[in-house]
């Protein structure tokens, strides 16, 4: 078990490299990965089940202890990234399927990778986990509503179908994870130790399947989509940090807000796009998954060096 836990930590620490490696493999050898497409939704459910296993009462106490800070983070998450996505689609006049894919990933909640990056950046980890938990629990209502509001100009959006999908692949697995945590008690610790390995393998498979299914479209318009993804992510990271500064947050919380806003649950975006739109609409989520883990790692390394002696303990 110790060896498996050590392997899990190693794979978790090298997450971005595995994503990049298998995305490239899937692009050049799509036939190897096409059969994996049917596993996208179950694997996302497995990731959410893992999140349920790790959620603690303390995570929700953080909401009660610092409701304003959590509220600012949640609003920033659901306003900045969807707004940026819509603006980029308008300014760059993206094709409909690509536009919907960009908006879709922008409307997703934060992902658990943001918690890892926040920890590495010496940000406020408790606040990061609280924001991720709240945005994920709100996602079944907020994400379909935002997609319907912002993306309907490009393609028809079925609010009810999106709501049911997110309910099934997000809330239900999280609820099962919480139940399993309660039933297993302290024994769940052994499962939690290998969760990074499970999550990385699952996200790598999701990204590889999406890239393989859309290989021809990526070859045709991949540079444009990648440019949009880089802009979307970079502006989100910057505006998240500025939002924290605007509200007078200490440095650790500004780091947290930057990472929480800029890093999305791109696995959910890929699953929703594949199920409700088209393989091309899933490409922005797949490329976002590759890029935001690279940019997040680089930014976390930069943030880790930043110190502000004037920062006071979080209130």
TrEMBL record:
It is a multi-pass membrane protein. The chain crosses the membrane at residues 12-30, 36-55, 67-88, 100-120, 127-151, 157-179, 191-211, 223-244. It comes from the Bacteria. Its main location: membrane. It is found in: Membrane. Keywords: Membrane, Transmembrane, Transmembrane helix. One of its GO terms (cellular component) is membrane. This is Transporter. It comes from Pseudomonas tohonis.
